[in-house]
Amino acid sequence: xxELSRRNFLVAVGAAAxxxxxxxxxxxxxxxxxxxxxxxxxxxxxxxxxxxxxxxAFGQMKSALDITLNVEFADYDAYQERMTTQMAAGNVAxxxxxxxxHVMTYEANxxxxxxxxxxxxDLSDYSEADLRDFELAGTLNTMPFGIxxxxxxxxxxxxxxxxxxxxDDWDWDWLADFAADYSKNAGGERKAxxxxxxxxxxxxxxxxxxxxxxxxxxxxxxxxxxGLGAWIEWWEKLRTSGATTSISEQDGVSPSWEDxxxxxLLWFGNSNHIVDDSAMYPETDFRLHQPPAAxxxxxxxPFLYFPRMAVYQQxxxxxxxxxxxxxxxxxxxxEMQKVVGLTMGVPPNPRVAEEYAQFATPDExxxxxxxxxxxxxxxxxxxxxxxxxxxxxxTFTRVLEEVTVGQAGVAAAAESMIAEIExxxxxxxx
Amino acid sequence: xxxxxxxxATPAETPVPRRARRRALGRQDGVAxxxxxxxxxxxxxxxxxxxxxxxxxxxxxxxxxxxxxxxGAENYERMLDDSRFWASARVTLVYVLVSVPLxxxxxxxxxxxxxxxxxxxxxxxxxxxxxxxxxxxxxxxxLWRQIFGHDGLVNQALGFFGIxxxxxxxNPSTALSTLIVLNVWTFGSxxxxxxxxxxxxxxxxxxxxxxxxxxxxxxxASITVPLLTPIIFFNLILQTIGSFQAFTxxxxxxxxxxGPVDSTLxxxxxxxxxxxxxxxxxxxxxxxxxxxxxxxxxxxGHFLLSRYWVFYGDSDD
Lengths: 430, 317
Description:
The structure holds 2 protein chains of 2 kinds. Chain A is of the alpha/beta class. Chain A is 47% helix and 10% strand. Chain A is globular, with a radius of gyration of 24 Å. The longest helix of chain B is centred in the first third of the chain and has 40 residues, at 18-57.
């Protein structure tokens, strides 16, 4: 056997280290080779059902476009962590879904390639008003692939059993009285509502009806301590009077559908949740309602929320053009929607939404109906969460916990939440 | 005159030229380095360099997306006014102070029982060790949610006696206790070490004590514990460091928030929130270095105090 000299040893170590470094530089497997290879990386989040559906749809897309997607999938929290490390390494997927708390943070750090630079992306299905709605800070740099709106979901089966009727036109006072009355008189463990104060879109709907905003155009908090306090008070009255499920029953201030979904007549949530949530109780019929609104609610208070995808700023031109084809297929081809369904909301592309209607399940028909109402309504502009506020929902939850366990009064909790969010915005701006 | 027979030189005594010896040693060094290389590369690439980078980042404002800017000791000063920093420090300290002694006591107690030469000892040993392997996993943390939830096993058992339970994980005054129970439950690792230590204790000391009429309790207090102090010390150090770094259980049980009302906001969870939720990597790095400093000071304190209560067989004490 040949003896190992110091020189050979160092050469071997150097070669191994060099190979490792080169391997790490090559990034995640699946990058386009550049020699005509039509392969892209696509990052998204969800549960395993969504993963399977999307992979099937991407298989279909490969037949149509001859583009192979190397999928980078994770659940929502893990996805955000991976994005963070990939951003730090400058190794983000060519196309990625944008987690809502980070929309403007990514924007401020130039992560998005403006869609106007991608000639392969056909946006002719959209009106000018639609495209303006999609813009961030005046630029069309992300592509919405769904629409959610805040809703109250009623359990129609339970309502029929209990002989109650949920109106389509209601206000907050009526709902509070009805909830107290129903929970008092309903048999067993049934309640009118779960405690849903931390549902962000419903809170936003409340603010907009009361002349406030969640965020302002210039990246500040758009609501006052009074506005937030009034929202918490409304829920506290219901909770303390027994009109909602208790925090203990529903496993925290964020209600658990698995734990109390079958006991609540009404549920504040997103319109798209009906798809996954109703699957848990297949024998039950659900209906969607617009959130309550006071008669004097501010004009233009309805709004749409868009989950967005983006093309990575550093994608080379050739890859960006391929990405444009993929984004176009994902948002403008009904065949894609037929496979993945409406778990991420109603297609923003009006043509696709219309074409899909004939394939929609009854729950999806409900979603289409309620979203169309909001889409057709007059809407004041809505702004995304500014940089530095990515943890605002966690703060909101903690503040509600403090109130519900009696550690803080409503006014003090509202003030402290606003102060904490302002500190985050100010730090991000420095 | 007598002749001294000449003994042939053994290879060890044969004078070896210095250059040849150096070459031989060099060859041995090379092989040793080759075998050490994977560990050394790992140490440098994924421990040392990131640690040094983190030390530098702790003096910067770094949001991951843009280049870090040097801010001096600002991140460290910021901790003084950060109420959540103090909340996380308090939660972690309570967790360490309560769970480590309890865990060691359980581990020692069970090791004493298993040391009695039970039939099927390997089976018991494996069974008790199993939670140590699973205890920090996501699956067990999820299981914990089921056990201590509103309709969980604990409340069902309490209901059997007519006691109405609470949602233990959603009550700020009980949430941390459930995580302490989870940590205590993973006593298998120190137990195995205690068991190995107990097997080494000389039987003749116990025989002599029995002859002198010492009770079982006296034997335990005067022989077992003193002779086992090096093992207790070893376990104490390991478990203390491990408990300061606890993360997974709190992350899963609280959904990453540290709630309710920060009652399970472990220090490591707070670091994670700052780094991966707030993108405040500079502050998160400073927090990490403070944790390292605290663990180092506490470990040094343990070593200093150990001279008063740890007895080694080869010492003159």
